[in-house]
Amino acid sequence: LRELEKERWQHEDQKERVRQEREDKKEKEKQERKDRKEKQEKIKREHELKMLKGRTALTLIDKKDSKVDGQAFNEWIKSLTRKRSHYRIHRGRGTCKEEYNTWRLHKPNPQVDTLLQRKNPSGLGTAPSA
User: Fold this and answer.
1) Which stretches of sequence are listed as region Disordered (predicted)?
2) CB 96, CB 77: distance < 8 Å
3) Which of 7, 40, 43, 93 has the highest count of CB atoms within 10 angstroms of its CB?
4) What's the domain range around 105?
5) For residue 29, is pLDDT > 80?
């Protein structure tokens, strides 16, 4: 009888241990998912900051009436074409895609598009053809 009792306890212990391990594993996976998500968020935030930092894009838009300051924008385009070797130039936009997106990110403005088209009918900012 005692042997049976002992065996039953061992079995119970075993079940308990397995259950505990399963719970621990679940908890660990949950934590890993959370960490991964936080890491991705952090990378995304850093990237957005990098995109906005040190750019003139923020100052180029008059916040009062959200009209584009034409002269500032033209200066911006010119500076881009001067520095074009440092940027991946995106054909068709007439200017660097990343810079353009930074510009758009702050305040999407349909005027920017028309300004770009007017400023760059010949594709001023595009890489020179070899």
Assistant:
1) 1-45, 111-130
2) no
3) 93
4) 57-119
5) yes
